[in-house]
Design goal:
Bound molecules: adenosine-5'-diphosphate, magnesium ion
Radius of gyration: 31 Å
Helix content: 25-40%
Distance between the termini: 96 Å
Structural class: alpha+beta
C-alpha cells in the first residue's frame, strides 16, 4: 500500500489558519490597524464598505516596506517583529505571529501599495486566495495602503455566515475604538461608505475619549493612576452616576494591547462597590504597563487574553487606583483634601475597602476575591485625610455676619436622632472649633439639605443620602468584625411574621445579631425584639425589623446583593435620616464630618450623589458673569 500523508499546499494551509485569525471583517480591521500602528504611523485612515464585507482599506503614513518585504509579508510566519523565541518574552509590538496578512490574503482579494520614505518608487502587489496576481513598481506616497476586497469570496460558507451589516459594523467599531483609545497620539479617521464617521486628531487620551464617546464625557471622567515597582496603572474611569445599564465601554490595555480580563474587571467593579446604581457598568479605560517578562500574551491567536505571573498583585494595584480616583478626584480639586489636618477622631473611618459584592462580580467570581494583602498597598499610603472643616477658613472675610442664621448653642439633649456614633464627644470639639473661626456657615434647607460654605464656594449635602452612606459603612464593618453595638429596647416587642419572612429571618439571624439586633423566638413565626442597633431610633423596633426584611427582600431580588452588603444597605436605608428631620448645628457638622471620613463621600450606597459642590465659577456662570 502507498503512503497517504502529504503536506498541505500553502494556499490550503493558509485558508485553514485564516479560520482562526479572520472571523469577520472586524478581524481584518484589527489586523490592518495594528500593523499600521506597529509601523509607527502618525495618521491612519480606515475605509469600509458594506460593513467591511466588500472593502476594508487602511492607509497609513508609517515606515512602509521594501519591494522584497512587500512580497514577504504575505508569507505565513513572516514577520519583522520577532526573530528568536526569547523575543516572545519582550514583545512591545501588537503583531508578532506573522500570520495575519497571509491569512487575510488566503480568503480575500488584496491590493497593497507601499513605499519607504527613502525609496523613490513604491510597490503595488495584488494577491487573491493566496495566489500572487501582480507585482510592479508604482509612484505612491510613503506609507502603506492595504485594500482588502470581497472577504471570503472563495469561502462561500463563511461569507454566508456573516451577520447583518449592522452587527458587523458594530464589531468594526469596537476594534476601531480599542485602537483609537490605545493610540491617542495617532490621528485616526473612519469612513463608512464614503461617509466620515470619525475624524480624531492626535492628542491626549482625555480628548480621544471625548472624540470617541461624545462631549458629555468631558464631565464624566476621573483620572486614575497608581504605580508600584511591578506595574503602573493609568487612564480614566467614568463617574458612577454616568454608568450605563449595558456593558461595552470597559477597556483594559496591557502594554497598549487591548485585553479582556474578568479578574481585573472584578478589581474595578469591586472598587465601585456600593456606589453604582443597580446593575450598571461604569466607563473605564485603564492602561497597565508591566515588564513583558511578567505576562504571557501568547495564549490565543486573536490575542485578547493575557496571563500575568502575579495576578493578585496587579489586581491590588488596579483596585487601589480606581478606589483612589473615586475618592479623590470627584471632589478633591475644590475641597483641598491634601491639607493634613486631623479630623475628629470619633469619625467613622473604615480602614479597608469592603469586600467585592456578588452583584458586581463577573459571572464567575474569581477565587482571589478577597482583597489581596500585598505590599503594594503600602505604596498607596493611608487615604488622604479630609478635613472639610478646614474649609471654613477665610469664612469671616467672605460672608458678612448678618447673612448667617444665628447658631444654636449645641447641647446633647437637642439631638433629634438617636445615634451614639453621632453624639458629641465630651468637650464638643466641633462647636469650639466653629466658634473659634467665627459664625458657622452651615444651615439646613427645607429640612432636607445641609448647606455649608467652603473655601471654593458652597457645598450642599443631601442629609438622607449622606447619612445612609455613613451608616452603610458602619454596618458593613460591624458585620465583618462581628461587633455591632446593641441598645436595649425599653419594652421587648413581639413581632409576628409570615412563614416565608420568618424563614428568611432565621437564615440571616447571625448577621442580624452582628448588627446589634437582639431577639428570641417566642412562638411560631414570632420573635421578641429586645435590642436594636445603637444607631436606630428606639420606639419602633417592630417596624424597623419588618422594614429591614422588606428592604432585604427587595435588594435580593432586584440587585442580587451578597448577604452582608444587602443587610448593611437595607438597615442603612431603614435607619437613615428621613427628609424633613430637623437637625441642630452640631448634628449637621457631625454628619458632614463623618461623611468625609467615609470611604466614598460622594455617593450613597445605591449611587445617588450625597453632595453637590457649587464653586464660585459655577455660581458666577449662573449669573451669566
Ligand atoms: P505580524 O504583524 O504578526 O508581524 P502580519 O502578517 O500582520 O504579521 O505582517 C507581516 C509583516 O508585514 C509585519 O511584521 C511587518 O513587517 C509588515 N507589515 C505589515 N503591515 C505593515 C504596514 N502597514 N507598514 C509596514 N509594514 C507592514
Ligand atoms: Mg500584524
Amino acid at each position: 500500500m502507498n503512503d497517504i500523508i502529504q503536506l498541505l499546499p500553502d494556499a490550503i494551509a493558509n485558508q485553514i489558519a485564516a479560520g482562526e485569525v479572520v472571523q469577520r471583517p472586524a478581524s481584518v480591521v484589527k489586523e490592518l490597524l495594528e500593523n499600521a500602528i506597529d509601523a509607527r504611523a502618525k495618521s491612519v485612515q480606515l475605509i469600509v464598505r458594506d460593513a467591511g464585507k466588500s472593502l476594508v482599506q487602511v492607509i497609513d503614513d508609517g515606515m512602509g516596506m521594501s519591494e522584497t518585504d512587500a512580497r514577504m509579508c504575505f508569507e505565513r510566519h513572516a514577520t519583522s517583529k520577532i526573530r528568536q523565541s526569547a523575543d516572545l518574552f519582550s514583545i512591545r509590538t501588537l503583531g508578532f505571529r506573522g500570520e495575519a496578512l497571509a491569512s487575510i490574503a488566503a480568503v480575500a482579494q488584496v491590493e497593497a501599495r507601499t513605499r519607504r520614505a527613502a525609496d523613490e518608487l513604491g510597490t503595488l502587489l495584488k494577491i487573491e486566495g493566496s495566489a500572487f496576481k501582480l507585482q510592479e513598481s508604482i509612484a505612491c506616497l510613503p506609507g502603506t495602503n492595504f485594500c482588502v476586497k470581497n472577504l471570503f469570496f472563495n469561502v462561500p460558507a463563511r461569507r454566508n455566515f456573516l451577520r447583518s451589516n449592522a452587527v458587523e459594523m458594530r464589531h468594526i467599531l469596537d476594534e476601531f475604538q480599542r485602537v483609537a483609545l490605545a493610540n491617542p497620539e495617532v490621528a485616526l479617521s473612519l469612513y463608512q461608505n464614503d461617509l466620515e464617521t470619525y475624524n480624531l486628531s492626535a492628542g491626549k487620551l482625555s480628548h480621544r475619549i471625548v472624540g470617541l464617546f461624545g462631549k458629555p464625557y468631558r464631565e464624566q471622567l476621573s483620572p486614575c493612576s497608581e504605580e508600584t515597582s511591578l506595574v503602573k496603572v493609568s487612564g480614566y474611569i467614568g463617574k458612577p452616576e454616568f454608568s450605563k445599564k449595558t456593558r461595552g465601554e470597559q477597556f483594559f490595555f496591557v502594554n497598549n494591547r487591548f485585553v479582556r480580563h474578568s479578574y481585573l474587571h472584578h478589581a474595578v467593579m469591586s472598587a465601585f462597590e456600593g456606589i453604582l446604581p443597580e446593575e450598571s457598568f461604569p466607563f473605564y479605560a485603564l492602561f497597565i504597563e508591566i515588564d513583558p517578562e511578567h505576562i504571557d500574551i501568547n495564549v490565543h491567536p486573536t490575542k485578547t487574553e493575557i496571563k500575568f505571573d502575579d495576578e493578585r498583585n496587579v489586581y491590588a494595584v488596579v483596585h487601589a487606583a480606581v478606589r483612589k480616583a473615586l475618592s479623590v478626584h470627584n471632589i478633591a480639586p475644590s475641597l483641598d483634601f491634601d491639607i493634613n489636618i486631623n479630623y475628629h477622631t470619633f469619625a467613622f473611618t473604615p480602614q479597608h475597602p469592603v469586600n467585592p459584592s456578588p452583584s458586581i462580580a463577573p459571572s464567575q467570581p474569581p477565587a482571589q476575591s478577597a482583597m489581596p494583602e500585598s505590599p503594594v498597598f503600602e505604596k498607596t499610603g493611608p487615604r488622604p485625610r479630609r478635613d472639610w472643616a478646614a474649609l471654613y477658613e477665610d469664612f469671616q472675610k467672605q460672608f458678612p455676619k448678618e447673612q448667617i442664621q444665628t447658631p444654636v448653642e449645641p447641647t446633647a439633649t437637642e439631638l433629634t436622632f438617636e445615634s451614639r456614633a453621632n453624639q458629641l464627644p465630651p468637650g464638643k470639639a466641633i462647636s469650639r472649633q466653629l466658634r473659634a473661626e467665627g459664625e458657622p456657615a452651615t444651615f439646613q434647607l427645607q429640612g432636607c439639605y445641609i448647606v455649608t460654605q467652603v473655601k471654593s464656594g458652597m457645598l450642599i449635602v443631601d442629609q438622607c443620602a449622606a447619612h445612609e452612606r455613613i451608616l452603610y459603612e458602619k454596618y458593613l464593618l460591624a458585620l465583618q468584625k462581628h461587633n455591632g453595638t446593641a441598645q436595649q429596647t425599653l419594652f421587648p416587642q413581639k413581632v409576628e411574621l409570615n412563614a416565608a419572612d420568618f424563614q428568611l429571618l432565621m437564615e440571616i439571624a447571625d448577621e442580624i445579631q452582628n448588627l446589634g439586633f437582639v431577639f428570641e423566638v417566642t412562638a411560631q413565626h414570632t420573635v421578641e425584639v429586645r435590642g436594636i442597633p445603637a444607631e436606630a431610633s428606639l420606639g419602633d423596633e417592630k417596624s424597623l425589623l419588618e422594614g429591614l426584611i422588606e428592604q432585604f427582600k427587595w435588594h435580593q431580588s432586584a440587585l442580587n446583593l451578597g448577604k452582608k452588603e444587602n443587610l448593611a444597605r437595607s438597615l442603612a436605608r431603614r435607619s437613615a435620616l428621613k427628609p424633613g428631620m430637623k437637625l441642630t448645628l452640631p448634628e449637621m457638622t457631625m454628619l458632614i464630618d463623618q461623611l468625609f471620613a467615609s470611604s466614598n463621600p460622594n455617593y450613597s450606597p445605591d449611587g445617588t450623589p450625597t453632595l453637590v459642590m457649587l464653586n464660585l465659577e459655577k455660581i458666577e456662570s449662573l449669573f451669566s458673569r
